[in-house]
């Protein structure tokens, strides 16, 4: 969970988010090298009073500063495309979670179980316990088993929404009349928070998402109680 003065990304809770953080750091290092080189050349040009006609008019230097950015873009594009296909792949999910966005709450349906569905509303501030996060806790949490491939199917009943959990690296648009799907696997227990990331109306910021990651045995016991 992100906190005050935290300038970095949230701690990852899935392998995909780990790869996203690695790619983020990889791209930042390339940008840092580019900024350093450009800054050094600007300072050199400002301080140097001499002029060379070979630099002002040179086919070789123009060729180099055309090829060099292309090579840099390749080093950014290859891991980016790899990660893009990795996020889009569905790897034999053990269970499916269907999510429907409403104005302004989420409905969840465990498609692999009979009559296991519920609505998830934000807990009002006066009803929240002291240790809860304001505007981020819900009355019904999504309980999911960790270390299991999970497919999520997202749609909407009225307007555009977006089901987003940053620590999982998941952001799927909820579009009326359309089913969008993604897969993820949670690699640690705990509570994972998210919100609707689409400007869907007046109460757009009151659509929190809370995922409770538990062990497989605890998930089975929870399903037995809910059924």
Describe this structure in words.
Helix content is 34%, strand content 26%. The model has no long low-confidence stretch (mean pLDDT 87). The radius of gyration is 24 Å and the shape is elongated. The protein folds into two domains: 15-46 and 58-88, no CATH class; 95-226, Sandwich (Immunoglobulin-like), CATH 2.60.40.420. The strands form two sheets. A five-stranded mixed beta sheet has the order 3-2-1-5-8, with no helix packed on it. It has four helices and ten strands, in the order αααββββββββββα. The chain has 227 residues and is of the alpha+beta class. The chain has helices at residues 15-47, 53-56, 59-88, 216-226, and strands at 95-102, 105-110, 117-120, 142-145, 150-156, 161-165, 170-174, 180-184, 190-196, 208-214. It is a multi-pass membrane protein. Residues 92-225 form the Cytochrome oxidase subunit II copper A binding domain. It is found in: Mitochondrion inner membrane. Its main location: mitochondrion. Belongs to the cytochrome c oxidase subunit 2 family.
* Helix and strand pattern: HHHEEEEEEEEEEH
Give the second-level CATH assignment, the architecture of the largest domain: Sandwich
Q: Supply the number of structural domains.
A: 2
What is the terminal-to-terminal distance?
Answer: 31 Å
What's the CATH C level of the largest domain? Mainly Beta
Helical fraction: 25-40%
CATH homologous superfamily of the largest domain?
A: Cupredoxins -  blue copper proteins
Name the overall outline: elongated
Q: How does the helix and strand content classify structurally?
A: alpha+beta
The biggest sheet amounts to: 5 strands, mixed
**Average residue pLDDT:** 87
Organism: Nasutitermes exitiosus
Catalytic activity: 4 Fe(II)-[cytochrome c] + O2 + 8 H(+)(in) = 4 Fe(III)-[cytochrome c] + 2 H2O + 4 H(+)(out)
Keywords: Copper, Electron transport, Magnesium, Membrane, Metal-binding, Mitochondrion, Mitochondrion inner membrane, Respiratory chain, Translocase, Transmembrane, Transmembrane helix, Transport
Subcellular location: Mitochondrion inner membrane
């Amino acid at each position: 969970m992100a906190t005050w003065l935290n300038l970095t990304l949230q701690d990852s809770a899935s392998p995909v988010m780990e790869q996203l953080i690695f790619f983020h750091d990889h791209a930042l290092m390339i940008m840092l090298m580019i900024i350093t080189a450009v800054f050094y050349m600007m300072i050199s040009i400002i301080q140097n009073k001499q002029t060379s006609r070979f630099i002002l008019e040179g086919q070789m230097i123009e060729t180099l500063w055309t090829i060099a950015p292309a090579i840099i873009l390749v080093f950014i594009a290859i891991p980016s495309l790899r990660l893009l296909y990795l996020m889009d792949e569905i790897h034999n999910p053990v269970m499916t979670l269907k999510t429907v966005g409403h104005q302004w709450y989420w409905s969840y349906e465990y498609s692999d179980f009979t009559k296991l569905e519920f609505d998830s509303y934000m807990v009002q501030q006066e009803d929240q316990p002291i240790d809860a996060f304001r505007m981020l806790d819900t009355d019904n949490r999504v309980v999911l088993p960790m270390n299991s491939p999970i497919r999520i199917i997202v749609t909407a009943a009225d307007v555009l929404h977006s089901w987003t959990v940053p620590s999982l690296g998941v952001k799927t648009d909820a579009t009326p009349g359309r089913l969008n799907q993604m897969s993820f696997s949670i690699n640690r227990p705990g509570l994972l928070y998210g919100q609707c990331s689409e400007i869907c109306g007046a109460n757009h910021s009151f659509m929190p998402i809370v995922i409770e990651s538990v062990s497989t045995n605890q998930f089975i016991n929870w399903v037995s109680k809910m059924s």
